[in-house]
Specification:
about 210 residues, alpha/beta, Rossmann fold, 7-stranded mixed beta sheet, 7 helices, about 30% helix
């Protein structure tokens, strides 16, 4: 049987990808941080990992895939950054990263396969394009996401021991410095990742 070709963009360490059915898929993961990419490759040795800009890679290679997942960095959109970091003087105001909407619109009009664009639910403004909601995330897709019992992690940044247990990933030994807790925090829950994948390919009845 022909495998489903998957682009896992802004892959991080692969929280969303962890429970995807290996026998059914061929994955290319794109991540611009070399050390995070190294961790991803250790966790998923059968995936091809490319260290580059996922935004540019999408534009040049989208036709090669059957399913595209994008988890673009969310910091510039979050209510947490605006209402906490900026107000406390820890960060300066920045423009929201409109690459998120560029990718959504691009996929809506040019991509023939299935796609899921994920971002944080707690934006400080109403999304410019209406998303679906699952767990603690917004999703822009071209398929319907069925209901799933809420999957929300609520752990203080810095608590790597709890994150390690929750995500099932061990980042000990990777040179991520102060970013390690953020890398954990940015992981999409693996059960939610599987649920979204199964919703995209429900006719294939993919299961664990």
């Amino acid at each position: 049987m022909k495998k489903i070709k998957v682009l896992n963009g802004y892959a991080g360490i692969g929280g969303n990808r962890k429970l995807w059915p290996d026998k059914e898929i061929e994955v290319i993961a794109v991540e611009n941080n070399p050390e995070i990419s190294r961790a991803y490759k250790d966790f998923f040795p059968n995936d091809k990992v490319i260290v580059t800009d996922a935004h540019k890679y999408l534009l040049e290679h989208y036709k090669e895939f059957d399913f595209i997942w994008l988890s673009r960095p969310c910091q510039s959109h979050t209510i947490m950054r605006k209402n906490v970091s900026v107000q406390r003087g820890q960060s300066k105001p920045i423009y929201p990263d409109m690459g998120l909407y560029q990718e959504i619109i691009f996929l809506q009009h040019y991509f023939k396969g299935k796609y899921a664009v994920e971002n944080v639910k707690r934006m400080y403004y109403n999304p410019l394009i209406k998303p679906q909601i699952s767990g603690n995330h917004y999703f822009w897709t071209n398929f319907n996401i069925t209901k799933l019992k809420s999957v929300i992690r609520n752990v203080e940044l810095g608590n790597n021991k709890v994150y390690k247990k929750q995500t099932g990933f061990n980042l000990d030994g990777y040179k991520l410095g102060k970013r390690k807790d953020t890398v954990y925090h940015n992981c999409v829950d693996s059960k939610l990742g599987l649920h979204i994948f199964n919703c995209a390919f429900k006719t294939k009845q993919l299961t664990l």
